[in-house]
Amino acid sequence: MDIFALFTTRVTEALRADYPQLDNELLTRVVVEPPRDPAHGDLSTNAAMVVAKPLGKNPREVAAGLVERFKSAPDITSVEVAGPGFINFRLADSIWHQVLKAVGAQGENYGRTNLGKGERVNVEYVSANPTGPMHVGHTRGAVFGDALASLMAWSGYDVTREYYINDTGGQTIILGESALLRYREALGETIEIPSGFYPGDYLIPVGKALAAEYGKSLLDMSEQEAVLIAREAALAAMMDLVKADLAQLNIHHDVFFSERTLHGQGGDIQTTLDWLREEGMVYEGRLEPPKGKTPEDWEDREQTLFRATDYGDDTDRALIKSDGSYTYFAADIAYHRNKYLRGFKHMINVLGADHSGYVKRLQAAVKAVSNGEADIDVRICQLVRLLKNGEPFKMSKRSGDLVLLSDVVEEVGADATRFMLLFRRNDAAMDFDFALVKEQTRDNPVFYVQYAHARACSIFRTAERDMPDLDISSAALAGAELELLGSAADIELIRLLGAWPRTVAAATIAHEPHRIAFYVHELSAALHGFWAKGKDDPQLRFVNQSDPKLTLARLALVDAVRQVIRNGLGILGVSAPEELS
């Protein structure tokens, strides 16, 4: 039961009844939401201001007519016009009891919507170069992308989680050369790793595996041939390592797309460039030098250019380098055309802070290759600064100069890593304080939320202990006399439960899973606050031996809070423990 959607329907139906000439598209702009100041009521709508101008009326005049319609509604205690024409509603307790009943009836499905209507969406995230284990710089995008994919699926989209393997280019050759050094080391040579190579110990097993498979035969080959063999072995081993690292955060992808498949004769890049030429989307020309610092990839020459400015980009983009190889952007266009041809009209790419300049060019590429049918949202994850007690924190470095994802998970656990990285907007830089995350206090958001779920479970254990004759089964909770829940604390908690469906929908539309983290934290705070009030006021205790009916109703409320916290944490990929040590 989405109380906001319900009242949006009621308000628009009232408008249609009074003004049948109103356009349906106009009515989609009618919004029902919580008022900015809770003292103004439970719900507020902009309906009168949306329709007043097309009707040629004053907004307050339209609002006054709607107020008259709703005054006699039995589930509304007051309705009034505010400001330039807002309408504020105060709801009867009975409607909040209906919300609570809906939570109990729908359980793990409460808040689920069919917003996506089964439409396919491709969420591409992580996509780190497979040249070593995952480091902390990859972790935020991995967690954000995974939570966003879960959120989209929860809201009715058909989601594909995709990882783009950057398995071509100069860095893979360097990886092969680095692995070949470890191969020689495994054969007994003393090696020195040059600057610019990959120095991490993670390539030692690759060298040993090559020695076991090839013996000394790689030494008899040309260096180019040996490097290519070592590269293949290293890439395969690194992808296994990447998958294992991500699994520590319970992150799994449906598709691993190899960039290498785009290249070569007859590959997607060549096919896409041929298609772009046929469509008149490329031309031969020169680019103006960019203002400010000249990037390394800018060349003052006649070259093949994509008409990116025709699709909203700031400049046209080069597709072929002076040496005849394709630019990174040529591969990007081909890759996203591949996605479109696979049936994805909705795409989300999660990129790191150093890719903010890619947003417009990727949007232009998708618009062009889909003839405007597809859309892409590029989400940028800003940097994470590691701290301990407010000071920069350097962890054990088992991989050259890298701080590994596995180090972070080992230090604080997967739940804390995921929740803390989601407890802030993805486009805002953040500090990750290891000392705070390990505290069992209200200042630690993940502990505070998990403790709320554990506390809800403990309330049921208390009821079983103190009132053994009270039936607290699911069936009994479904039949509880919810009208007994009339205190301000009861209604406040139920009102928060009523906001869950709207929160999920808004987070889905905005592609912002941090809203879910904020919500469950707020709901947890309300539960903790209610519990504290019960210490001073016996009538507010969840378990009251002198009043079995009220206890059962309160347990239904606690069970609903427990369920919604579990739903929210499930979207975030965080566990909901029944006890905390």
Strands ordered across the widest β-sheet = 7-6-5-11-12
Strand residue content: 5-15%
* Alpha-beta classification: alpha/beta
Helix amount = 40-55%
Gyration radius over CA: 29 Å
Inertia-based shape: flat
Termini gap: 35 Å
Annotation field: number of helices: 21
Query: Which residues form runs of ≥5 with pLDDT under 50?
Result: 396-400
Indicate the mean pLDDT: 92
Secondary structure tally: strands: 15
Q: Please describe the biggest sheet, giving its number of strands, its sense, and whether it closes into a barrel.
A: 5 strands, parallel
Briefly say what this structure is:
The chain is 48% helix and 12% strand. With 581 residues, the chain is an alpha/beta fold. A five-stranded parallel sheet has the order 7-6-5-11-12, sandwiched between helices. A four-stranded antiparallel sheet has the order 1-2-4-3.
Structure write-up:
The chain is 48% helix and 12% strand. It is built from 21 helices and 15 strands. The protein has helices at residues 3-18, 24-27, 47-55, 59-70, 93-106, 136-154, 170-186, 204-214, 223-247, 268-278, 328-341, 359-369, 405-412, 414-422, 434-437, 445-466, 474-478, 488-498, 500-510, 514-536, 548-572, and strands spanning 32-33, 43-45, 76-82, 86-91, 120-124, 158-165, 255-258, 282-285, 303-306, 317-318, 346-352, 375-381, 384-388, 391-392, 430-433. It has a 5-stranded parallel sheet with strand order 7-6-5-11-12, with helices on both faces. A 4-stranded antiparallel sheet has the order 1-2-4-3. Strands 8-9-10 form a 3-stranded antiparallel sheet. A hairpin with a 2-residue loop joins β13 and β14 (391-392).
